[in-house]
Give the backbone structure.
Amino acid sequence: MTITATLDTLRAMTFAPAPRPRLLFDAADIPALRAKAGVGMLGRVREDAARIMTTPGEQANVLQPYLSGMEGLAAAQAYALTGDERIVPWARARIGALLAMETWFSPVHVGACRVCDHVMANVASEVAQMADLLGETVSPDEMAEIAAGLRRRHFDPFLDGTAESAEWWFRPAIMSNWKIMTCGETGLAACAVAGYLPDAGEILARSAQGVLQVLDAVPAEGDWPEGVGYWFGTLRYGLQYARALHRLTGGAVDLFQHPALRVTGDFLTMLTTPAGAVYNFNDCDPEFGAGLSEVLALLAASSGRGDWMAVARAHPAETLLYLAYDDPAIADTPLPRAVAAFPTAGAATMRAARTFVGLKSGPAQAGHSHLDANSFVIEAGGAPLVHDYRYWPQAHFLGYFDGGGPRWHFDGLATIGHSTLLVDGKGQAYADGCGGRIVEASDHGEWARLVGDAAGAYPGLLTQFTRTVLLLKPDVIVIRDRVACAGERDLEWLLHHAGTVTSRGRDSIIEHQGVRLAVTPFLPDRALGWRVSDVMRTSTYECSDTRQEVTMAIRYRGFSAFRPAHEAEFLFGLRVNGAGSADWTFAQTEEGWTLRAAGYAGGIVPEGEMLAYRER
């Protein structure tokens, strides 16, 4: 069904009030969900609800009302799952407190949005879901009042903001996670109260329009430039709307037929590490949280993908919705590949046994992007060893989203916060056409390699920066950089390590969570002088979301030659639980060099600007 046909179908529909809950599952489903939860989970859900209810239901966060809505929704879900009647009056009071607020428009979005922002949609969805989950404890007359409150605080502003003078996030050319979040949350809220809204069809149609526009923009590989956390964190809202809409329309409208939903789960599964973390480039966190478990289970259930469901089940969430989405009819299957590239996001990964390697080389101006072209991460033996930093709290008033300069004062977002190069002490540029690209991600059986090109990230400084990361399975990694400079430049090779790092001769030994990574440099030649720097930088500032002071830090080991150069070649060998230099045989000849790792018959050799492994 085309977007036009979908919207026409919705606009022609009328709806009547129906028994609740009905949005994402029926009351008849609850006994089975309780059985899946088991006694232990039910007890923990009750405990979480009791903790939430230590704050009065009548109290709502004026600065960030969606946080109060999240608490209310968690309590209402606990009621649906446990049947604990003590939760009902508290949840009803929280609905009342949110509906009593004059506005849900976030102060940090004043000036950026005219009449409607995503926080309004978040709160509307939370209120609507709470009312749905409370079932018959909320009367039809009360539902009508809730629908009227949702109309004044969100549906009318949403219709205004998606009309001729559209908000920035709804415009056709804009493909932001805001669009699928705001439209998905609005649509879900409208599904809950459709029987009380004479124009429900129009609200549902506008919501579907935004969701489908975003899905149309998903590339063939299923990735999204804003990163795993932002994409799946907001795709989740679009998918919940799709599920509720399918149920509301009796299957007449099925957004799950969109082809993007057949592939986008690969973006999450291939960026999930063997230890269960997530490759967290851009403003994302490394945890595989409950929201990711829910969205992946829902994607797997809608597409029949056993490999996606297996990853979701490896990270089971103790949530009502995860239980509802985990379809027992879908059997687990293994990941079909070990190497993957996502060129739009600018990320590639490879894995073998418990070793995971990621390479980031993408556009500088994607949403939430960092200046991190040709940076890499390594996990092995269950431990992060070379890592990206977790999310740095937003500070709108300090220019957190001003790529013209202030954003790069935050170390975790700037080049200095990533395992790539500094040139003359400077990082990468934020401008149209700047950034990097994934050149190759290939699996050769015994070995695999990722290749990135980041010359465009350093305009006026570099004319070439080709990085090859080779994985000699299962636990040997070799990194080669070919760098050409515009004039003579000082180059510093950054290694952002987890745990501790110590020196043992020329080797650097990283140790974290009982796992060791021995890092041995081979090029540039030590005869020209060699510098190793251990740097820690701490930043303190006020988070604009909480108005609380936060302290964040970066820590890296830097490697550099004494002298500036027109060109340079960096070559490092890294081995999990290795001995360092004793593991390697490095030989230079007039024709080039060869590198051998102990225990492997073949050798690692240059292949043009890249690296390859050649059997003896």
Summary: The CA atoms of residues 293 and 312 lie 5 Å apart. Residues 219-336 form one domain.
